[in-house]
Amino acid sequence: MSFADGQEKVIIVTHSMGGLVARYASQVLGAKDKILGMVHGVIPDLGSPAAYRRMKVGARQEGMAGAVLGNSAKELMPVLARAPAPLQLLPSSKYLSGAPWLIVEGAGEDGSDVKLPKKRDPFGEIYLDRTLWYCLYEPNIIDKDKNISNLNWKEYFEIMKDKVRSFITELENKYHTNTYAFYGHKLDSDGTLIWRKTSITYPKNMHESDRRLPNNYREISLPYNRSQMYVLTSSKTPGDGTVPVESLSTIRHNGEIKSVLATHVDHQGAYNVSNLENIHARPALQFTLRAIVKMVQEIPAP
């Protein structure tokens, strides 16, 4: 798109994490002067607990996504632990204004519920505390050798410190001055997560492979040859099925954002359209096209 001074600028339309990447390039890496404006669709602005859920139990419940990403924690966790991009979708310290979004029933020393983060530090309290069974990464989930497990943790720790934490913190509250965004607010999403105690028990001598636990269940060893079953459950709060509205609190209340639309849209199909006529039934698509037109109309005449 040419301007009177001979410069060229682009309009960027993003989906999901693409919005974070585009914002990082614009506001952190210095590309903002080459961008006329941005339209963000279903952007996980402050992250989503869905990233934690996928890491811990896999993505089987997400249908085709599970087949692609990995149905179980054993399939998915070792991959995600070495992939900065999916980890950059984790809730930031600003998510829920720092209030707890992960609850573990009865896990406190006195039997009380553990609610994290307590001190607005999800990295120190959840993502990088190896002592907790409900921490994000279990380096021995496949590699049982202690030396290999320690090496796995070291590699994961470096990725989290150098590529994930810095990306999340440097991006906070930074938006291009010509930004439009739409998000979903009708579908059940992971606003918060709870590890709930269950009453499921197994005979002591039953072989582990015969227990056939669902993906979202975990068996945690207790003293005296006992164990406790936990199941990871979602709050099912409004969102787009992946990103909850809680993740959009900053965008929704940022006075510098040009326009924001809350609509009935699912995460994966945010831009789906079968034909031109179908656009009339898709508010998100209409919003995107109008935003692009408005940006073009505001270009000064040569």
Descriptive overview:
With 302 residues, the chain is α/β, with parallel strands linked by helices. The chain has one domain. 29% of the residues lie in helices and 19% in strands. It has nine helices and eleven strands. Helix 2 (50-57) crosses helix 4 (73-80). Residues 1-6 have low confidence and may be disordered.
Q: Can you lay out the helices and strands and say which pair or pack?
A:
Elements: E1 10-15, H1 17-28, E2 35-41, H2 50-57, H3 64-69, H4 73-80, H5 84-87, E3 102-104, E4 114-116, H6 122-127, H7 146-171, E5 179-184, E6 187-189, E7 193-197, E8 217-222, E9 226-234, E10 237-239, H8 249-252, E11 259-263, H9 283-297
Parallel strand pairs: 1-2, 2-5, 3-7, 5-11
Antiparallel strand pairs: 3-4, 6-10, 7-9, 8-9
Features:
disordered N terminus, four-stranded parallel β-sheet, alpha/beta, single chain, 11 strands, 302 residues, 29% helix, elongated
